[in-house]
Specification:
By secondary structure, the protein is an alpha/beta fold. The chain has a domain at about 155-330: Rossmann fold (3-Layer(aba) Sandwich). Helix content is about 45%, strand content about 15%. It is built from 17 helices and 14 strands. The chain has helices spanning about 5-10, 10-20, 30-50, 50-60, 70-75, 90, 95-105, 120-130, 150-170, 175, 190-205, 215-225, 230-240, 240-260, 270-280, 310-320, 425-430; strands at about 80, 135-140, 145-150, 180-185, 205-210, 265, 295, 325-330, 340, 345-350, 355-360, 370-375, 385-395, 410-415. Strand 6, helix 15 and strand 7 form a beta-alpha-beta unit. Helix 3 packs across helix 4 (about 50-60), helix 3 crosses helix 5 and helix 15 packs across helix 16 (about 310-320). Bound molecules: zinc ion. Zinc ion binds near residues 342, 344 and 346.
């Protein structure tokens, strides 16, 4: 059996465990561990065969023949720098031949495009997508973008897992359709929040977007780098037109209230705060249908000077919009799933992901506890899956009162000192002005 086939053979049982987990069933820790160990060893063989940068690292450590899952996770996890390990000057110079060569070194999929006439990042993404490789981008405050490649198989895995988590909340396609989607994001674009908004839009039958056009990596990069000249049109449509765009969001919410249809809102915490504060200024209160839902995305890291605490925002949302069901999840572009937050404030790790915490030397700590969050993702079939984030968490196997079994993160998520603030919230904040 090829290494990739061996890796893919773990997917069906992991999906089955996830279905049991979602229904509140108990999953076997030993079975979960055995599946993930098998997946990591198969993935290691696959990456050694097909990803040049990974093979070089494994070879330097004399680990290309390693079949020990713990050693592979400890020695061969990449950090969040890996997906931005290109030279930013290449983009400034429009050198997409160099960018393509870099992408080849971190991706298992053969890349066949001719990059010589490409002049923008979006054109590069479009050319890659036409050749069967989708490239997700994310940005930190520095504007040095991260790129995560997904071929058809990897993109399908991501889509399936997000759809399954969303289905649990929305309870089936028929129920989902009755929501009015009010999406404080872009309409399209390969960025986390925009992808989530697209997914929500696809299952509802009335949608309003804050930005009714796709997010582009060129615009986000220029905005984050504080380069208004390079992003004049993007800034005009995102920053200068923001008051009218917020008004369109409010109009959509008023319409849902009048029609008695539940709203399904999606936005970063500071955007939701902006909307509520606009209502506060005019003394307006919306009584949305009690079945309305809000997905908060992008995290609580402080952006653009917004200092509202979570309880303060939830109180504001209940008061001004009448929405009491507020959901959150934790995830990142480099990961094929999301970790939903339960009513007890824990982020639960779906069985499709194997979580770990590492110490300052990036070695997994024994057992569980507090440390830098990492994971191995067996659905990362075309880029290295063992990954260490820049976030500090507390990982536990202690049961949660909500009934979901398996691993969870308790006590919130903190960005490690020295790591740039990153996430969908950062992307949205960079276009706030
Ligand atoms: Zn819970």
């Amino acid at each position: 059996m090829s290494a990739l086939d061996e890796l893919k053979a773990t997917h069906a049982p992991l999906h089955e465990l996830t279905a049991t987990w979602q229904d509140g069933g108990q999953i076997s820790f030993d079975e979960l561990r055995a599946l993930h160990d098998r997946a990591v060893v198969a993935a290691h063989r696959h990456y050694c065969e097909t990803i040049a940068s990974y093979r070089t690292l494994a070879s330097d450590l004399a680990l290309t023949e390693c079949r020990d899952a713990d050693v592979i996770r400890a020695e061969l996890s990449s950090t969040d720098d890996a997906f931005k390990s290109y030279d930013d000057a290449w983009i400034d110079a429009g050198d997409y031949t160099a960018m393509t060569d870099w992408l080849r070194s971190v991706c298992s999929t053969p890349i066949t495009i001719d990059p010589t006439s490409i002049t923008t990042i979006q054109e590069w993404l479009d050319a890659l997508e036409a050749a069967g490789l989708k490239l997700w981008f994310s940005s930190g405050t520095s504007g040095h973008l991260s790129f995560v490649p997904r071929d058809e198989l990897a993109a399908r895995s991501l889509d399936r897992q997000i759809a399954s988590l969303m289905g649990r909340v929305l309870r089936g396609p028929a129920a989902a359709a009755r929501f009015d989607a009010v999406l404080m994001s872009f309409k399209g674009g390969r960025q986390g929040l925009a992808s989530a908004a697209d997914k929500v839009a696809s299952v509802t039958n009335r949608q309003t977007f804050l930005y009714d056009f796709a997010i582009t990596p060129d615009g986000v990069r220029a905005a984050a780098k504080g380069d208004p000249a390079a992003a004049a049109d993007f800034r005009r449509r995102t920053v200068d037109e923001l008051p009218e765009r917020y008004e369109a969001i409010l109009q959509a919410l008023r319409r849902s209230a009048v029609d008695g249809r539940p709203a399904l809102m999606l936005g970063a915490p500071f955007q939701v705060a902006d909307i509520c504060q606009r209502l506060e200024q005019t003394g307006e209160r919306l009584s949305l249908d009690p079945g309305s839902l809000m997905f908060l995305a992008g995290g609580w890291k402080s952006f653009a000077g917004v200092q509202l605490s979570q309880p303060e925002l939830l109180a504001l949302v209940a008061d001004r919009l009448g929405i009491t069901r507020v959901l959150e999840s934790y995830g990142m572009t480099e990961c094929s799933t999301q970790m939903p937050m339960c009513e007890h404030g824990r982020f639960h790790v779906p069985p499709t992901l194997w979580p770990m915490v590492v110490d300052e030397a990036l070695r997994p700590i024994d057992g569980h506890g507090r440390g830098r969050f990492g994971f191995s993702d067996p659905f990362a079939t075309c880029f290295p899956g063992p990954f260490i984030t820049g976030d500090e968490v507390e990982l536990t196997l202690e049961p949660c009162a909500c009934g979901l079994s398996g691993f969870s993160l308790v006590g919130g998520i903190r960005r490690l000192p020295g790591r740039e603030v990153k996430g969908c919230g950062g992307v949205m904040a960079s276009v706030r002005g």
